[in-house]
TrEMBL record:
Protein name: Methylmalonyl-CoA mutase
Matches recorded under InterPro entries: Acid_CoA_mut_C, Cobalamin-bd, Cobalamin-bd_sf
Organism of derivation: Terrisporobacter mayombei
Molecular functions per Gene Ontology: methylmalonyl-CoA mutase activity
Keyword hit for Coiled coil: no
Gene expressing this chain: mcm
Length: 136
């Protein structure tokens, strides 16, 4: 069985990536292949990297407050490219609880807020990729 491939991305002007690096390491330690895009990526750059790398998951970390714009934009671009149905899109970072329903409505599968155990994120990815595979 091939390992799960995850693109960890930092959309927007957010210059803090410690959380993204922590989750990238945890995913790698769980046996996943992790591609980290680095800081200040546009939604277009994230989607192109996801397609080029043929990833299973796009995991975005955002602290800048622009989550209601940037995360749905990535989902919309994945849909335009015909890749959304094969990719699990998740987000994390400093995102107010009241914004989470909107982001899920826009196509982000889950939002992980500060303090969430990395094992919760890992389990979510594994369980929801199984559901995606069953829908193929």
């Amino acid at each position: 069985m091939k390992p799960i491939r995850v693109l960890v991305a930092k959309p927007g002007l957010d210059g803090h990536d410690r959380g993204a690096k922590v989750i990238a390491r945890a995913l790698r330690d769980a046996g996943m292949e992790v591609i980290y895009t680095g800081l200040r990526q546009t939604p277009e750059q994230i989607v192109q990297a996801a397609i080029q790398e043929d990833v299973d998951v796009v995991a975005m970390s955002i602290l800048s407050g622009a989550h209601n714009h940037l995360l749905p934009k990535v989902v919309d671009l994945l849909k335009e490219e015909g890749a959304y149905d094969e990719v699990l899109v998740i987000g994390g970072g400093v995102i107010p609880e009241e914004d989470i329903p909107y982001l899920k409505e826009k196509g982000v599968a889950e939002i992980f807020t500060p303090g969430t155990s990395t094992s919760v994120t890992i389990d979510f990815i594994k369980e929801n990729l199984k559901k995606l595979a069953l829908n193929d």
